[in-house]
UniProtKB/TrEMBL annotation:
It is a multi-pass membrane protein. InterPro entries: DAGAT. The keyword Nucleotidyltransferase does not apply. PANTHER family: DIACYLGLYCEROL O-ACYLTRANSFERASE (PTHR12317), DIACYLGLYCEROL O-ACYLTRANSFERASE 2-LIKE PROTEIN 6 (PTHR12317:SF19). One of its GO terms (cellular component) is endoplasmic reticulum membrane. This is Acyltransferase. It is found in: Endoplasmic reticulum membrane. One of its GO terms (molecular function) is O-acyltransferase activity. It comes from the Eukaryota.
Length: 333
């Protein structure tokens, strides 16, 4: 049997890096929760009791900036994760460490691969491109109620997408903080078919209000290729399956997408791993925002419009460079 080539070894390392990430994202929290409940009924019940006590003691930590571990961000597995797609970060303008920022991350896609790789791992060189800037990524607050999964998320720099958590990072953590928010959220994941770029943004203005209240500059970013990682079953508007998805999203905060990717052993087989498609995240020009503690609706609308125009310019200036055609348009609903 011939020895595997270096190319084969790299390919398997990349596949394993993506596999551990997908399994951690989908299974770490639920499996750990079931395990701790099971241990309650065994002689190992003190383990569950001690962890419950720890969670109660540590309950507010996610809302206060989390517990970032720089060593996890430098984990070598993230380089293999980056190279699987590959993922690339592009800077168009400098970000001054003397300000705080809210980075709008678009589109959501299925698993937010571009946002995670660029803002949570150090594999794409964020700290070198933007020296003095500390990136954070927000996610559903419910994820921080799952045992061990909460520790995993906080160690990378993830925080709940709540007013309290974002406000803490923008007001009590000094300057040089960049809080990335996937603004379209779970609802946007229902419309991420290849060739169609639909952003749920028209009525999402809470991030603009937060930016005004804390004087944080608004920065648009777009991950070209994010919607190409999976194949999604898109149900027609008005169908009962679409109605179930939308109702579930409103009640639970996330949408039950029906999607598939590549298999573990073959690209041609169907599975739950993302396809290897290039992702290029372009960080645009900051929109300067004044500090207004009680901004009016008119002021919020003004800066929301400025942000949307900046995002559209970013998309149109870069779409042909990173895989889209001249005729592709960005649809904002």
């Amino acid at each position: 049997v011939p020895w595997p080539s270096q190319r084969d070894v790299r390919a398997w390392l990349q596949l394993l890096a993506v596999l551990q990430w997908v399994l951690s994202f989908l299974l770490l929290g639920p499996v750990t929760l079931v395990l701790l409940i099971y241990l309650v009924f065994t002689r190992f019940w003190p383990i569950s009791a001690l962890y419950l006590a720890w969670v109660i003691f540590d309950w507010d930590t996610p809302e206060k900036g989390g517990r970032r571990l720089p060593c996890l961000r430098r984990w070598s597995v993230w380089r293999h994760f980056r190279d699987y797609f590959p993922v690339k970060l592009v800077k168009t303008h400098d970000l001054s460490p003397g300000h705080n920022y809210i980075i709008g991350s678009h589109p959501h896609g299925i698993l937010c691969v571009g946002a995670f790789c660029n803002f949570i791992t150090g594999s794409t060189g964020f700290s070198k491109l933007f020296p003095g800037i500390r990136p954070f990524l927000t996610t559903l607050a419910g994820n921080f109620r799952l045992p061990l999964f909460r520790e995993y998320l906080m160690s990378g720099g993830l925080c709940p997408v709540t007013r309290r958590a974002i406000g803490h990072l923008l007001s009590k953590n000094g300057t040089g903080n960049a809080v990335a928010i996937v603004i379209g959220g779970a609802a946007e994941s229902l419309s991420c078919s290849p060739g169609i770029t639909t952003l749920i943004l028209k009525n999402r203005k809470g991030f603009v209000r937060m930016a005004l209240q804390h004087g944080a500059f608004l920065v648009p970013s777009f991950s070209f290729g994010e919607n190409e990682l999976f194949r999604q079953v898109v149900f027609e508007e008005g169908s009962w399956m679409r109605a179930v998805q939308q109702r579930f999203q409103k009640m639970m905060g996330f949408a039950p997408c029906v999607f598939y990717g590549r298999g573990l052993t073959s690209v041609r087989s169907r599975g739950f791993l993302p396809y290897a498609r290039p992702i290029t995240t372009v960080v645009g020009e900051p929109v300067m925002v004044p500090k207004i503690e009680e901004p009016s609706s008119e002021v919020v609308d003004l800066y929301h419009g400025m942000y949307v125009r900046s995002l559209l310019k970013l998309f149109n200036d870069n779409k042909t460079k990173y895989g889209l055609s001249e005729g592709d348009e960005l649809r904002i609903v």
